[in-house]
Amino acid sequence: MIKMVIADDEILTLDMLEHIIDWTKLGIRIVGKATNGKEAMELIHSENPEILLTDIQMPHIGGIELIKMLAQSHPNLKILILSAYGEFKYAQEAVRYGAAGYLVKPIDEVELEELIELCIGSIHERIANEQEATYRKLLNTRNGIPSIIKRMEIKGIREYHNYRVFIIQADPISDNDQLLLEDQLPFISERVIHIIRKYISDQSIPGYLFEFQEKEWICIVEQSDGFAKQMIQLLLAELQINVVVGVSTLKESLKKLYEAYNEATDCLSYRFLFSSESVLEYEELMLSGSGNSHFQEEVFVQVQSLTEEILADPLGNTDWKNKLTRILHETNHHPDGIYSLLFGMLVRLRMKKWEKKIDHADIHPVSFEALKSYKSLEALLEYLEQSIQQLGHEYEHFSNHGNELVSKAKDYIQAHYNKQITLESICAHISISKNYFSSLFKKETGMNVWDYLTIVRIEYAKKLLVKTTLKNYEIAEQIGYENPSYFTKMFKKLTGSLPHEYRNDPKIERGS
């Protein structure tokens, strides 16, 4: 509740002000009534209200003098002045010194309520800004700052107890989703905040949400059962965006906010192992044994043995990928440990004798940071598979065969550019694994397969633009794009022109 003090030297006016409006309905509690300026000042010092409603003419300390004094001692206090008709010039002076507004007696209750609501809106905005600034400071301080915690109550900032921290991160599942997210990020962030804050308010859940950094929102919530899943469903239904949520353990005080944030952040790193999970809770991860970042000797031995199997058959006939996946999921260790283990595995593969028989210039160096750029175990295993196949095929001098495979892939893309082509369908057509094919295609053409597909599609679009009157969405559909906006973006990116500009360009050769 917002606290308010009312002051007037007429008792009847004080009683009238106390009952003229349903203050409780507005979220206001009257914490004191004063009949002179001195009493008003004492009440403000003792109760620390957010609003003062006072007459301009007061005994002991006049209204103007009171405003000047309060501007120094209570700069955030909203002061509304009541004045008689003949005192209008004093009311104007009061506004110059910082009063939030004034009313001329007799009081119009509608006008009074409107002014009060403006004050309430301003107070809530100030508290929200101070609240966010306070939480940001606490998030960057390991043991909390006692002075900040102490000032929170004075500023009207809620001190949460038995809460959890939820980190909500945007999680686009396709390149098109990522592109749309980047284009609309300011709008999406604003909507995410509005949707979740509205849900918290409608459900009367003690909680607060703010954007901490780009594509990441932090929510502090006391009643948290099912909260993460509800957020995921709401954002998917209303914004069509996918998110992943990291959830901390229960904390008893905001002094633990730093710790809670780091727990939730740590949870999100486990998306590396659990790529299909949208909610990752710290308690569950710790109970499953994931908190141990050191690999047991048994795991190390298993992976070393598997490395020897790969070395014996570098072209991939051994079922090493499924074996390695099973080992890593069963041990369920911290992602940093997995990165270290696979880094060692890859280095060992590149040091073996069969690497010495091929051209070293064609072997890309491996780095720990490069491995950590892969954000899921599946992606990292695909990279590992690609590296193994690359080395194996180079060892067997497959370069000529590679040219033939890329040529066949290009023919297939030319014939099916207007359909929903997948990497699997291309590789099935030319009988090759998708990871080796991706590496081979990039090596032979200098671009990835999707860049080549885009070029093919845009070339056909250019022909349709100059030879037909088809609309943009019809052309997009004919060349295999479901989203006309995405087609326009890709066309602009490759040609430097929008489709209609290209169609109307007099320098374009029309043909017959």
TrEMBL record:
The segment(s) forming the Response regulatory domain are 3-120
Q: Which residues carry this modification: 4-aspartylphosphate?
A: 55
Top-level division of the source organism's lineage: Bacteria
**Where is this gene product found?**
Cytoplasm
**Ranges for the HTH araC/xylS-type domain?**
407-505
- Keyword flag Transcription: yes
Q: Which UniProt keywords apply?
A: Cytoplasm, DNA-binding, Phosphoprotein, Transcription, Transcription regulation, Two-component regulatory system
Q: What is this protein called?
A: Response regulator
